[in-house]
Design goal:
Layout lengths: L5 H19 L8 H9 L12 H10 L6 H24 L8 H17 L16 H17 L3 H21 L3 H14 L1 H4 L6 H22 L3 H7 L8 H8 L1 H4 L2 H13 L14 H21 L16 H9 L9 H29 L8 H15 L5 E6 L4 H7 L5 E2 L7 H4 L10 E6 L13 H13 L6 E6 L12 E8 L7
Parallel strand pairs: 1-2, 1-3
Antiparallel strand pairs: 3-5, 4-5
Helix pairs in contact: 1-4, 1-17, 2-3, 2-19, 4-5, 4-6, 4-16, 5-14, 5-16, 6-7, 6-8, 7-10, 8-15, 14-16
């Protein structure tokens, strides 16, 4: 176990969770975040009508080189999570005393990796790559750059980490505006520690701030040109009142988002540590680490209380990245060079086998019960739409798809020609944020998908259908409406239920004469 390279463990981690995700969520997430990302990635713009652009850029860059397949998307998801775990490890190393023995250092690092990998954000929740999960990689590296910049002693090191801090902080903000609360937390940490306040007597924090603002400037200018869609998005997230129960539930996510991590911590503390504590001369104060663990969650709840921003548990996905470090730090005084590696390895192997066996059983249950989310059948939906399009418009190319958002993005991802996906109709305010000007000269389709019922046969997105009919009539176009049926196909779907989708064909202007 001592000689097992971390690279091998990382590859096993990524491969395991890609396999689990591919087995249990074969058509990507039921909320449509991942097909939405792909749709946004088609424009390479500096923003979207809802989020900043970094995760859409990441998706676009990834699929410029890799196939647009479900498994490939999950590889991206878990490489992102793995990068975050590596960032947590580098952050944890800042608290390791330079005089610590190699054996104890190795145990500490392995425990940090274990606690991080066992947490829900870095395990099953990481599968859905979106604006929340991209922060799994960005927040740990931003925190690492921050603390490394504070503790750097050589001039070259100070400038290196100043640059890294500006880059990671800007990337975090371009990943999701929520990262502003992490940056606020780091700012408070820097003022709460007396020796950290001396940092502000140097040029480095101001250089980092200047570069950070410069990197964000193109996005700010884009927001201004687009009429500040961020404002509309925030207004849609305002609650009339704070909910104390929701606040408590959010704060408890530090427990229920890391249940396996806490169990592993208790097992290691009880069975694999020595009774004799060895004093540790911490090179970095512990109080900032504690503040790093709790401040983002406290700031989030404060925004709910005072700004009435809607509080939801999925915001906690990136929040607790510092806890695996703190958990390992608590154990370090009781860790010795005689750590029982073989016993530890057996426990990890047993947990891995149980995880895979549980996944297989869970997948079988989903299949034989015909679970609606499991058999979303986005691939078959797109195949049905494209097949019918080919019958109606031989030799034509389906260039764009609108209608129910984000399911129109499914046509962009799974479609043979990757048609451009639009939210609603081409002149919908959301679509006009990044307009698709050539829709009039190309074949398109409006798809209306009953997402609440997972398109179960007989269900309809009546609002989408009414909007589509009204829009077509307003454009002076004939309403060519059809209901297509389909169902999940393949060896994994033993009792797949039939589904339907309503489509409205939109021929180009040259075909309307």
């Amino acid at each position: 176990m001592k000689r097992l390279p971390l690279r091998t463990l990382g590859m096993a981690y990524v491969a395991t969770w890609v396999l689990i995700s591919w087995l249990t969520v074969p058509a990507l997430d039921s909320y449509g975040d991942m097909v939405e990302n792909y749709a946004w990635s088609q424009t390479w713009a500096w923003g979207t009508f809802r989020h900043p652009p970094l995760f859409a850029w990441t998706v676009g860059a990834w699929f410029s080189f890799f196939p647009t397949q479900v498994w490939s998307y999950y590889v991206l998801s878990y490489l992102n999570a793995a990068a975050g775990i590596v960032g947590i490890l580098w952050l944890a190393r800042l608290w390791l005393p330079p005089t610590l023995s190699h054996g104890r250092r190795r145990v500490f690092e392995m425990l940090v990796l274990l606690f991080a990998a066992l947490s829900l954000p870095y395990s099953n929740l990481a599968a859905k790559f979106n604006a929340d999960t991209i922060l799994l990689s960005l927040w740990p590296w931003t925190a690492y750059a921050f603390f490394a910049a504070l503790h750097a002693t050589e001039s070259r090191e100070r400038w290196k980490f100043t640059l890294l801090l500006a880059l990671t902080a800007a990337a975090a903000m371009l990943g999701k505006y929520y990262s502003g609360l992490l940056l606020a937390s780091l700012l408070l940490v820097s003022f709460a520690q007396p020796e950290y306040r001396r940092w502000y007597r140097t040029i480095h924090p101001y250089a980092a701030l200047a570069l950070f603002l410069l990197l964000l400037l193109p996005h700010v200018l884009w927001e201004a040109r687009a009429g500040f869609p961020l404002r509309d998005y925030l207004e849609s997230k305002v609650d009339e009142s704070a909910d104390a129960g929701r606040i408590v539930l959010f704060l408890l996510s530090g427990i229920y988002y890391l249940p396996a991590s806490w169990i592993a911590w208790l097992i290691v503390r009880r069975r694999l540590t020595s009774a004799a504590r060895k004093p540790i001369a911490w090179p970095v104060p512990l109080r900032p680490l504690v503040l790093l663990c709790i401040l983002p969650a406290l700031f989030t709840t404060a925004f709910n209380v005072f700004a009435r921003i809607h509080l939801t548990t999925h915001w906690a996905i990136p929040v607790w990245f510092g806890l695996p470090v703190l958990m390992a730090v608590w154990l370090l005084p009781n860790l010795g060079d005689d750590f029982e590696w073989n016993r530890f390895a057996r426990g990890v192997a047993v947990a891995w086998v149980v995880l895979l066996a549980g996944t297989l059983i869970y997948t079988i249950v989903l299949s034989v019960t015909g679970d609606a989310k499991y058999s979303l059948a986005r691939q078959e939906m797109v195949k049905a739409v494209e097949g019918r399009f080919a019958e109606r418009f031989p030799s034509a190319r389906l260039a764009w798809a609108g209608g129910s958002w984000p399911e129109s993005g499914a046509l962009a991802f799974f479609g043979a020609g990757h048609p451009h996906a639009l939210p609603g109709v081409p002149d919908d305010p959301r679509a006009l944020v990044n307009p698709y000007e050539s829709w009039r000269e190309q074949h398109g389709v409006l798809v209306c998908y009953a997402s609440g019922a997972y398109a179960r046969e007989g269900t309809h997105d009546t609002a989408c259908e009414a909007q589509s009919r009204a829009w077509l009539q307003g454009q002076g176009l004939k309403v060519e409406e059809e209901v297509l049926t389909y169902h999940a196909e393949g060896w994994r779907f033993r009792r797949a239920q039939p589904k339907n989708i309503t489509v409205f064909w939109v021929p180009p202007a040259t075909d309307r004469m």
